[in-house]
Specification:
The complex is a heterotrimer of chains A (385), B (383) and C (597). Chain A is built from 18 helices and no strands. Chain A is mainly alpha-helical and 385 residues long. Chain B has 16 helices and two strands. The chains are: A mainly alpha (385), B mainly alpha (383), C alpha/beta (597).
Chain lengths: 385, 383, 597
């Protein structure tokens, strides 16, 4: 390579390029050395690492929410303005908001400490108190931003909801996710019961086939499926799997079944077989045993599987991108993707961030409410061996 | 009224068939058949408009790997065949034993290693040692591998550290941390991409602002002695040189939570009696971790690793949404495949070639998944 | 508890409901009208889309009509005399100017006023109340009110990011429907890669659009695959006598002058929309049009020419005559050096887009397009090696020199589209090399202060030492194709005829595009191109250049090599290495797919 004077301009950038994999590895080694050497302070280091990680995540999310309240002009001309809503202590509104926020965080911690010291009972009032304080803190932060010029939230969210059609996409997403998750739950429960609790030739190899098909990349079957659609066009009904929510439900269900069966097989195995034998003695057939005994018993595992599938399908966009071209039928992630592409023509950044928040809020609510179920289902033996 | 047949086994098989039928139909029609069909399509040239694919045989694969690599593949394949045959023979012999000892079973399993090593050597040579074939495709596979190894290392290290920490009895506010670390894995890849694009923004992005903030603090500290103000040149996190590393960081951020939760669940499943027994025997914390926790969650670690390997090889959403209209340095196999098959800006449609890429991807996934299976321990721990 | 059965019932009902909704939503009733399905390449919010079905560009969001649209206020006042004083007052308050009187611009306002007179009074009240209210949301509210109160208008909001403007809901499509009541139009704005989006429709044969608007590069695929009708050839299977004997393009133009449509287009447009059927098409796709001239035409839409835009304000600032832009590359270099000396960054350029055009147009000037085409397709002198044409190295070295001297803006390698456009429009850089779509794209973001930004353009400067045609222009066209599988050829042709007759003026004035129709004045920014366009002979017009003629070469050789050569990166190629890389990749391509792809 010959000498290029402009290369000089890029040198400082290279020196501090933290994303370089070798630098990454060096950092990692240093981290491990510190962890091992300071055995006594390990807990503190763990706290520090986790706090940094969590702090970054929370800051990033709040920052997106605040960005979704501003204007496009600000976004382009004063890009650091959103971040200043956390750190600009010369601004009275920001200072007040952060003070209220900190007070609320203190209150939440205090409630947690009080709860830990309390012998038993009354958790829910503490949780409610924490929730209220959290909402108050968030509200204070957003109010502070509102008074600093981030007061276009109503307009941005309405634009995202109506003009960028997030509302319509939400309906599509809900229909597709709910339909396919229901279908998956039913079919996979039936299949896993048959594969774990019934005796028939070829049972183990069939289970193995399902597990092995986890290796099939979705990209492999994308083109053949695309081809199949040509032949599966029902002219009389004007129905095809292309551009159809129903078609997408079926495809999602088919694609998620192997993983769900894999997830549930460990769980079903951990259910005692004696129950089925007892039911057989009482005169129940295999199907009745399944629907009356094992299906309700498997509810925790099924819930976990359903949540995982719901999140996966709610967020999926590879198949939706290929199989949905009709703008009426797009799902939320595809709509958001097109919104990103749209930024070329119409700089509507705040509405884009509003779109992320709209996409994310349902999953976050589900996550908060059902978190315990996820952990419980996993702990009870879903993924094992 | 329930009528019991003479052969309960046959009856069970019939019920099982009925219960499995819908699953098998969906599975067969939408997964198995397309997967087989893909192998056929990869032998054709097809633009996707006219229903007239052109038969080209294995030319796509030859183009992909290039003439010399393809030629060198023959000795490799021979060596591979020999290694596979030897391993198969050993396994067959140990399978004939009615009660194979642990040593025999291990021996049979380790026999697969030479074949795996030969395959890996050939892959590595193709990826890093040659200039032959479709170098864009090779670049994409290399990116996938980078994500798999570098991303996987960090992903797993963080997940492991977090899971171990959160499972400690004396760790306060574990639930809060768990929730907050887990929640990014619930955001759609598009959302993660938009979020991180914003974080990486050279002007006003979180990364650069944080670096500048640190510089401000440092310069304020130095100013006590000597007045100075350090300004950091904004780093272009999304320039072509940094792009894929930035994508990897975003993938780590969104992937850690899920793996952490699997590990936490595995650790929580270990019966407390094991720990009590160890404590009674006088083991310290580290010994307990190394000799009890690790072996007990080994299976789950392997599953987590396998899921990561599969996930990183077929990653699509994050890279696609992050890399819109960017320099193509951050392409991975799946985005390239999508580009060639479905969304071509240059009006070249190569569905056959794209499918051939996916077939190679499948082979890679199978190799790595089977390779990880070799680490599976032979003695089953039941608890 | 029969939990299982309850769940089954819920799931089955949900699935059936979704299926039912899917099936019913596919049957859209158009009464007894014939449907024309229009698939357009323009993305949401792009100017042409707004022109066809939405508001004009240049509207300021704070006011119902922008400052440019004084005629609308006047028309509103004329149509509703009882509102006139209120309109005048508000106009004065907002724009600090007198409302033009209705007589000053006679005919336009009369037609507009007639439109306003037909609107609902309740809507007019809200419209007048909205003037001057600085709330962007009001446009949405106005739109909703308009839709509610005027059932006679069939409003479509198909993923348009900007909502339709109430005053312009009578877009071109709506106007066409009023003139031809027998037709209904279904618009689909399928984004930039309209062909990718429509491919499934061609495959399944369902919902195939009757006409597709796209770039020639895309539409030529339709020709090759025999999916589009050739427009200037006899179509024996059609019923229309003109179509049967001569072809669709020979129908009478829509304005009633009796001239065949083909004669209303200018040379550049026709040349850009010509497709020459090559032997491969005939061999592989059994093309039926192999006989005769082997030429097929698309319906011309807009023309784009690759030009260098420049900021006349900077020319004045450094003491150059803004009316005589550089004519040779050496003059161009001198200008850039002068600009650098004056502290102005010469060339606005992104790190990723239009990079290849520098190499292509410089090579066009240096070796000439025919020669370049031969080299690229594998039949001519090579880029590197023993039988190399030395001039390719010269081109690369010149480009590298420009980069090393710092002609390109800082942040050139890392900046993303549309960073360069933004900086250029804000008066930070002097030159921008791109297509003539630029004025329309930056209409919203550019500075309108002539001291900061004064836009004009010139074609790529010539090379005195080169053998290429110095007047050659690289043009690309956005055309329309009538699809063979479409159900309504007649309606599609009528719509096209209408759009190219009545849309042409608007394209030039509202959109700042170059229209395909003869005699339509050029937008002011591109007035300098007038003589060049008028004098251009078919030999001077390079349609799409290498990008269109050799798509495989472009994708797998040119773009990949240029990406390693132009930006500043750690593994950057030297000019020699660049030529060698081009050569190596080209040879690989020929080995894989054969020459001339």
């Amino acid at each position: 390579m010959h000498w290029d004077p402009n290369i000089l301009a890029t040198v400082p950038e290279k020196i501090i390029r933290i994303a370089n994999p070798f630098t990454f590895i060096a950092w990692f080694t240093i981290g491990v050395v510190i962890l091992v050497a300071w055995d006594r302070t390990r807990l503190k280091i763990l706290y520090a690492v986790k706090s940094l990680w969590v702090g970054f995540s929370i800051l990033a999310m709040l920052w997106v929410i605040i960005s979704s309240m501003g204007t496009s002009k600000d976004f382009v001309q004063v890009p650091e303005k959103a971040l200043m809503q956390f750190f600009d202590y010369h601004n009275p509104a920001t200072m007040t908001a952060m003070a209220v926020c900190l007070a609320c965080c203190g209150g939440i911690v205090a409630l947690a400490v009080m709860l830990a010291r309390r012998p038993t009972g009354g958790e829910y009032s503490f949780y409610a108190g924490q929730g209220l304080l959290g909402a108050l803190g968030l509200g204070a932060l957003l109010a502070g931003a509102h008074f600093n010029g981030f007061d276009h939230w109503r307009e941005n969210y309405i634009r995202a909801w109506t003009i960028a059609r997030m509302g319509d996409y939400m309906i599509n997403s809900v229909l597709i996710s709910v339909g396919s998750v229901g279908l998956i739950t039913l079919l996979s429960a039936m299949a896993t019961y048959a594969l774990t609790k019934l005796e028939f030739p070829g049972r183990d190899s069939m289970l193995y086939l399902f597990v092995a098909s986890l290796a099939i990349p979705t990209q492999l079957i994308l083109v053949p499926l695309f081809l199949m659609m040509r032949n599966w066009h029902v002219a009389a009904l004007n129905f095809s799997f292309m551009d159809s929510r129903f078609g997408l439900i079926i495809i999602y269900a088919a694609l998620s079944l192997p993983f769900t069966i894999f997830l549930l097989s460990g769980f079903f195995r951990s259910l005692p077989s004696e129950l089925g034998e007892a039911a057989a003695i009482d005169g129940c057939g295999e199907f009745t045993t399944f629907s009356r005994i094992y299906f309700p018993l498997a509810a925790p595992g099924l819930t976990t599987a359903a949540i995982f599938n719901f999140i996966g399908i709610w967020n999926e966009y590879n198949f939706a991108l290929v199989f949905i071209t009709n703008p009426d039928l797009k799902t939320l992630p595809v709509g958001l993707y097109y919104l990103v592409v749209t930024q070329q023509y119409a700089a509507e950044w705040p509405a884009l961030f509003a779109g992320i928040v709209i996409l994310f809020v349902p999953t976050f609510l589900i996550f908060l409410i059902l978190q315990r179920q996820i952990i419980a289902g996993l702990t009870l033996g879903s993924v094992k061996g | 009224m329930i009528v019991r047949g003479k052969h309960p086994g046959a009856r069970q098989a019939a019920v099982a068939l009925v219960l499995l039928a819908p699953t098998l139909v969906l599975f067969g029609v939408f997964m198995v058949w397309p997967a087989i069909d893909a192998l056929r399509i990869s032998l054709y040239n097809w633009t996707g408009f006219s229903p007239r694919p052109e038969w080209v045989g294995i030319r796509h694969f030859r183009d992909m790997f290039g003439a010399t690599v393809w030629g060198m593949g023959v000795p490799f394949l021979l060596a591979l065949a020999v290694a596979l045959a030897a391993a198969g023979l050993l396994n067959w012999r140990s399978g004939r034993q009615t009660e194979p000892t642990l040593w025999q079973r291990r021996q049979a399993k380790w026999a697969w290693w030479p074949a795996l090593l030969i395959l890996c050597a050939w892959l590595a040579w193709w990826l890093y040692g040659t200039q032959d074939g479709d170098d864009f495709f090779r670049w994409c596979v290399r990116n996938n591998f980078k994500l798999m190894f570098v991303g996987g290392l960090f992903n797993f290290a963080f997940a492991f550290i977090f899971a171990a920490g959160l499972s400690m009895a004396n760790f306060k506010a574990a639930k809060f941390y768990r929730t907050m670390i887990f929640f990014p894995s619930f955001i759609s890849a598009v959302g993660v991409a938009i979020l991180w694009q914003r974080v990486y923004d050279a002007r006003g992005g979180l990364c650069n602002e944080m670096i500048q903030g640190v510089a401000d603090l440092v310069s304020r500290a130095i100013s006590v002695v000597h007045p100075i103000h350090l300004t950091i040149e904004p780093i272009e996190w999304l320039s072509s040189d940094n792009m894929f590393n930035s994508v990897i960081a975003a993938a780590i951020w969104s992937g850690v939570g899920g793996e952490m939760i699997l590990l936490i669940a595995a650790i929580q499943r270990i019966p407390p009696t094991f720990y009590e027994a160890a404590r009674v025997d006088g083991a310290n914390e580290r010994q307990v971790f190394v000799h009890i926790t690790l072996p007990m969650i080994k299976e789950v670690i392997l599953i987590t690793l396998t899921l990561w390997v599969i996930g990183s090889l077929k990653v699509f959403g994050l890279v696609q949404a992050m890399g819109i209209d960017q320099d193509q340095t951050s392409s991975v196999v799946s985005t390239r495949q999508y580009e060639l098959a479905f969304s071509n800006r240059d009006n070249i449609y190569q569905m056959g070639y794209a499918t051939a890429m996916a077939v190679v991807l499948l082979v890679l996934i199978v190799i790595f998944a089977l390779g990880l299976r070799l680490f599976k321990s032979e003695e089953e721990l039941e608890f | 508890m029969r939990f299982f059965y309850q769940l089954s019932a819920i799931v089955i009902v949900t699935l059936l409901a979704v299926l039912g909704w899917d099936l019913s939503s596919r049957r859209v009733s158009h009464g007894n009208k014939e449907l024309i399905i229009y698939a357009g390449m323009f993305g949401p919010g792009e100017p042409v889309q707004l022109l066809y079905s939405g508001p004009p560009a240049g509207l300021e969001p704070e006011h119902p009509f922008g400052a440019q649209a004084a005629g609308h206020y006047a028309a509103l006042a004329a149509a509703w005399p009882e509102m006139a004083t209120k309109v005048k007052q508000r106009f004065q308050a907002v724009f600090q100017a007198e409302l033009p009187s209705p007589d000053s611009a006679a005919s336009d306002i009369g037609a507009l006023a007639e439109q306003y007179r037909q609107l609902d009074r309740r809507y007019i009240d809200r419209l007048v109340a909205a003037i001057g209210r600085k709330d962007r949301l009001q446009r949405l509210e106005l739109f909703n009110a308009f839709a509610e109160l005027h059932p006679q208008y069939d409003l479509h909001l198909i993923h348009i990011f900007e909502q339709l403007h109430p005053a312009y809901t009578v877009g071109l499509f709506e106007d066409f429907k009023r003139r031809h009541p027998q037709y209904a139009i279904e618009e689909r704005w399928d984004g930039r890669w309209v062909l990718s989006t429509n491919r499934p429709r061609f495959l399944t044969g369902s919902d195939v659009p009757d006409l597709i608007a796209g770039s020639l590069a895309e539409l030529r695929i339709l020709f090759r695959e025999n999916l589009a009708l050739p427009l200037d050839r006899p179509l024996p299977e059609e019923s229309d006598p003109v179509w049967r004997s001569k072809g669709i393009l020979y129908s009478a133009s829509a304005d009633g002058g009796g001239v065949p449509v083909i004669d209303t287009f200018n040379n550049v447009a026709l040349e850009a929309c010509r497709y020459t059927i090559n032997p491969r098409d005939v061999r592989e796709n059994h093309h039926p049009y192999a006989a005769g001239t082997r030429i097929a035409y698309l319906w011309p839409g807009l023309i784009h020419i690759n030009v260098i835009f420049y900021n006349r304000a900077h020319f004045r600032q450094i003491g150059l005559n803004p009316d005589s832009p550089p004519r040779t590359v050496d003059e161009f270099e001198d200008t850039c050096r002068k600009l650098l000396k004056a502290g102005i960054e010469p060339i606005a350029q992104d790190g990723e887009s239009y990079l290849e055009n520098w190499w292509l147009d410089l090579s066009n000037r240096m070796v000439g397009y025919d020669e370049l085409l031969k080299s690229c397709s594998g039949y001519g002198p090579r880029f590197a090696g023993s039988n190399a044409d030395k001039r390719y190295l010269d081109v690369a070295e010149r480009l590298r020199r420009w980069r090393n001297e710092g002609f390109w803006m800082k942040q050139f390698s890392a900046s993303k589209w549309p960073g360069a456009q933004r900086d250029f429009g804000a008066g930070k850089c002097t030159f921008l090399f791109t297509g003539t779509w630029l004025p329309a794209e930056i209409a919203q973001t550019r500075s309108y202060d002539p001291k900061v930004f004064d836009l004009s353009c010139f074609i790529f400067p010539g090379c005195p030492e080169g053998t290429g045609n110095p007047r050659a222009i690289t043009a690309s066209a956005q055309g329309h194709a009538i699809t063979r599988q479409g159900r309504n050829h007649k309606g599609a042709a009528a719509l096209l005829n209408y759009l190219s007759t009545y849309g042409a003026e608007l394209e030039g004035t509202e959109l700042h595009y170059i229209s395909a129709r003869k005699g339509v004045p050029l937008p002011p920014e591109m007035a300098a191109l007038g003589p060049i366009l008028a004098e251009a002979k078919p030999g001077d017009i390079i349609t799409d250049g290498i990008l269109g003629d050799l798509p495989m070469f472009t994708k797998f050789v040119l773009l990949e090599s240029v990406a390693q050569f132009m930006p500043i990166r750690s593994d950057n190629l030297t000019p020699e290495e660049f030529c060698q890389t081009m050569e190596r990749k080209a040879q690989e391509l020929y080995a894989k797919y054969g020459k001339g792809m």
